[in-house]
Amino acid sequence: MRIWTLMTLRACFVLICGALVACGADEIRLPPQLQAIDVTPASPSIAYGQQQQFTAVGRFGDGSVVDLTNSVRWKSSVPGVAVVVDAAAGLVQSVGAGTTQISADAGSVSGSTTLQVRAPALVSLMVEPAAVYAGVGIATQIAAWGQYADGSRADLTALVSWSSPSAAVQWGPRPGQVSGLALGVTVIGASLGAVSAQAPLSIVAEAWSPAPNPAGGNSADAAVLLQDGRVLVLKGRDGDIYDPVANRWSATAPLPIDPGSGCSATLLADGRVLFVGGGLSGVEIFNPTTNTWSTAASMLTARRDHTASLLASGHVLVVGGRSFSGQTGAALATAESFDPVANLWSPAGDMSTARTLHTATRLADGRVLVVGGSSEAGAEIHDPATNTWSRTSPMHAERAQHTATLLPDGRVLVVGGVRPTWNMALRSTEQDWASPPELYDPRLDRWTLASVPAARFQHSASLLPDGRVLVAGGAAWYYFGPGLPSDLARKALSAVQVYDPATGTSTGVADLPVASAGHRAILLPGGKTLVIGGHGLETRLVFRDPGLPRVVTTEVAVPNAAFYW
């Protein structure tokens, strides 16, 4: 750097002068000593994201001053607040709110000043969900999000002041948790300084109520929650998006292929949706921002009735299924993994047994638990780190068309299902048609029986915001004749239970007004559960469940009273 060059020259000058004096030369004058460095501006304050240019002026013993900006060594004492981006110009970039010392060093002489970086200004607040539901003594959790001048967004739920003009509104115990003292409609508000926002609040009783229908009908081959809180529903080549804030449906661009049923839709880490299966090897990706489809690399194996799980790495693990799209087909033991960045499929090892109509649940440690779908009472775990499979301890019963829900404590609740080995030509018992609920603890590799009444399959199981599980609808087999195969029918169920893992017990809540089976259940922001689709469905209903945060809205299509194969 220039300052070191100057000091080196000075040292040489001293040596030369000493030699000259020794030779009898006249007195030689030494250059002035650097005594101090002044850094300006003094104690500046800038907003987060802005830059600040500093100047270093050296004061010498003879009273002279020299601009040393491009020759000193600049440093920020707190790199998390500001960093030097151009040393020659003394330019500093703020990277976080707070205070740091900006120093300029020239050998043993230095100077500094304090730089304060202010947090970006809060521009607006938003209450989410935009329409809030609570019950009498039934709380729901809401959030307040702040938008800052730099474009950033932050959760301010615990920092804002919550209020309502209604005396029927009760707050707490957690920030943003609201409940009612009486039925009615009012508004709630969140404020922080001079910035505020409001949202409508409906204090309702446990009930079912109608909801709008998509223009394309209620069937749902696949459904997935998008990153913005909307829900994408696919049926054949047609798609609809439900906006829970506006409470309306809109059509998507048509899917390039028509796979029929047995497909899956998986939300990718970047917000797009991966659509695979239906007996085809072709793969499509939907971009909800642009409402467009793009074709991705084909799967290694065509399949349907499989599972597709998003891994922590952003890859998607596709497991099992059937080999083609007909009414029958060989179950598959193969698995494959999709890398959406590289657009590449790769083998993910084979399971020990072929499985279809099974479940796949990503565990808290990133592994994937695959349950049922075969003729044995077993489950397997895939470890993405090693790309290998391992069997769990034996289950209590084999099953297919069940549900598997990851609980907050890391256990998995498996409910319902039919035994894949039962023979419709024989008059079997009800135990052959539905399997008992079980809990799996991956830390202990142990299965235990759980308490969830009403045997069922093709039901939904939704994890509520308070950690309980809402088990709704489904189907059961029954005989309506003397026991011939043609006398076997499937009936939809209206029973709804809530399982509490803290107590290990189930509580019956309001039944569906009409029975429903084969639907899709999606948990929405704010504690709602959207359930759509099923067999013979015409309209949908909205269910509000008492829980913590106790308002859960389940929208479910209304099927016929009973239906047959």
TrEMBL record:
It comes from the Bacteria. InterPro entries: Big_2, Gal_Oxidase_central_sf, Kelch-typ_b-propeller, Kelch_1. Pfam families: Big_2, Kelch_1. Residues 1-24 form the signal peptide. The keyword Hydrolase does not apply. Keywords: Signal. Residues 33-116, 121-202 form the BIG2 domain. This is BIG2 domain-containing protein. It comes from Rubrivivax rivuli. The lineage of its organism: Bacteria, Pseudomonadati, Pseudomonadota, Betaproteobacteria, Burkholderiales.
